[in-house]
Amino acid sequence: MDRYTALQVFRHVAELGSFAEAGRKLGLSPAAISKNVAELEASVGTRLINRTTRRMALTDEGKLYLEHVVRGLDALKDADAALSPVRQTPGGTLRVAAPMTVTLMRLSSVIPEFLSRYPDLKLDLHLDDRRVDIVREGFDLAIRGSDKLEDSSLIARKLAVMPHVVCAAPAYFEAHGEPREPADLKSHNCVRFSLSGHADLWEFRNGSRTEKVVVKARYSVTSSLAVRDALRAGFGVSLIPRPYIEDDLKSGRLQRVLSDWETVETTLYAIYPSRQHVAPKIRAFLDFLAETFSRP
């Protein structure tokens, strides 16, 4: 028995005073109407409707039950109606986890623009370079960077690709010399972003050649901005996403080396739990992220 259908049938029979009229109103056969009422009575353990071939009437128990059924069904209808604007308009609180560096470099300055579009929406943005469990930790969406996205039941929407470059301050290269081959990095002060998926092994490709360099860093840190600061200070050399130091390369504050070698790329994804029934607040933010990261 479909309990909801049975309750709807009982209500219509009681209010219309006719099994046949209830069947016509609900689009059900007389046999289906009778079956639903009988199964409902069996479920509650009492007769709700006295009926003969010519007439029907609610029992006292049926009258009492009808009062509660009407209130319950009307409450469900109100609940559905309450969700209708929520399903259409972004609102409520959107919980997002995002890497700190990406957010500070590309996203935080345009967040006010996003919120101004949706006055009924609140944003709870958590900046953390670690990989969060969005389901267990209750996030609606996470921005995640990876050079190899793991298999997952989560949905991933590609936002951008960030190439990496090897660079350091010109003063550092003046003091220590420039590496001509990836293997030369073994004799340099390497600065290591410890949360990277390739923190301990930097891979380089040049045509058919592939070289892997085991990173032995004096300085390991969990922030790419801290890596950038160390490079600016002339402390060492690092493999870092180019967007983070693009302005430094243009101004000459940092200098790229090994430019004829290809290195890893980090792809940014928006990760969310399901493709079905995506809430308007999530869809709005996904579209805004795609728009933001498509800008030069």
What descriptive keywords fit this protein?
single chain, 296 residues, alpha/beta, Arc Repressor Mutant, subunit A, D-Maltodextrin-Binding Protein, domain 2, 3 domains, 7-stranded mixed beta sheet, two-stranded antiparallel ribbon, 13 strands, 41% helix, rod-shaped
Shape category: rod-shaped
Summarize the amount of helix as a percent range. 40-55%
Q: What is the level 1 CATH name of the largest domain?
A: Alpha Beta
Can you tell me the CATH topology of the largest domain? D-Maltodextrin-Binding Protein, domain 2
Sheet with the most strands, sense and barrel status: 7 strands, mixed
Number of domains: 3
Oligomeric assembly:
single chain
Number of helical regions: 10
SSE string, helices as H and strands as E: HHHEEHEHHEEEHEEEEHEHEEH
The total beta strand count reads 13
Euclidean distance between termini CA atoms: 59 Å
Q: Name the beta content range.
A: 25-35%
Which architecture of the largest domain per CATH? Answer: 3-Layer(aba) Sandwich
Characterization of this structure:
There is one protein chain. The radius of gyration is 32 Å and the shape is rod-shaped. The strands form four sheets. Strands 3, 4, 5, 6, 11, 12 and 13 form a seven-stranded mixed sheet that branches. Strands 1-2 form a two-stranded antiparallel ribbon. It folds into three domains: 3-87, Winged helix-like DNA-binding domain superfamily/Winged helix DNA-binding domain (Arc Repressor Mutant, subunit A, Orthogonal Bundle); 92-160 and 267-294, Periplasmic binding protein-like II (D-Maltodextrin-Binding Protein, domain 2); 161-265, D-Maltodextrin-Binding Protein, domain 2 (3-Layer(aba) Sandwich), CATH 3.40.190.290. It is built from ten helices and 13 strands. The longest helix has 29 residues, at 60-88. It has 296 residues and is of the alpha/beta class. Strand 8 (201-206) and strand 9 form a beta hairpin.
